[in-house]
Design goal:
It contains nine helices and six strands, in the order H-H-H-H-H-H-H-E-E-H-E-E-E-E-H. With about 190 residues, it is an alpha+beta fold. The protein folds into two domains: about 1-30; about 30-185, 2-Layer Sandwich (Beta-Lactamase). Strands 1, 2, 3, 4, 5 and 6 form a six-stranded antiparallel beta sheet that branches. A hairpin with a 2-residue loop joins strand 5 (about 160-170) and strand 6. The longest helix has 24 residues, at about 5-25. The N and C termini lie far apart (about 55 Å).
Length: about 190
């Protein structure tokens, strides 16, 4: 084998080993103390989802989605830059400003979706335009909270866990609020 082939093989094996290690590491459940802290964050997120600014933004999105929101597809979303005016508008609206005011060291992400799973507001651009048919949206739309597995966030490389809560109007779910928390920073709060 040539030196370049050996190096390529070594790097591929290293990448596979890293991926297996990260999957194993990410699959570990939270310890009892971390789960207790996360349970408190879930209760806090429920109060955020009840904020009239958040509820009104979701109601408006559901009743009168913007032309840009109606025309958006996953393919267009992926291609859109964070500087795209429509993307930026979802970080600058009153609901996004409300979420920004809740930012803490442990909070890694937060995004708000309407009934159809499409975005209403967020702290930073999400990977997906819609979370329809995913448990992080469907559970809240059934009036339930949701907690994801511990995972390594692709953008930060940190271990995080996402939770989701319903946005309620008169006790009826009208949208979802997903919030991510850093595992290491959760312990410090």
């Amino acid at each position: 084998m040539k030196k370049a082939q050996i190096q390529k093989l070594f790097l591929n094996l290293l990448a596979v080993g890293f991926a297996i290690t990260m999957q194993t590491f990410a699959a570990e459940p939270l310890d009892a103390a971390a789960q207790t802290r996360l349970d408190a964050k879930i209760k806090l997120a429920q109060t955020w989802a009840a904020d009239p600014i958040i509820v009104d933004a979701v109601k408006e999105h559901n009743a009168h989605p913007s032309a840009e929101a109606v025309a958006m597809t996953q393919e267009k979303w992926v291609a859109a830059s964070v500087l795209d005016p429509f993307v930026r508008s979802l970080t600058k609206n009153p609901a996004a400003e409300s979420l920004k005011s809740k930012k803490s060291a442990a909070l890694t992400e937060a995004f708000l979706s309407g009934a159809n799973g499409t975005k209403v507001a967020f702290l930073s651009k999400t990977t997906s335009w819609s979370h329809k048919d995913k448990p992080k949206h469907e559970n809240p739309m059934a009036g339930k909270t949701w907690q994801g597995a511990v995972e390594v966030d692709e953008s930060t490389g940190q271990q995080q866990v996402q939770i989701a809560v319903p946005v309620l109007d008169g006790g009826k779910p009208i949208g979802s609020l997903v919030v991510g928390f850093s595992i290491s920073k959760l312990a410090a709060e």
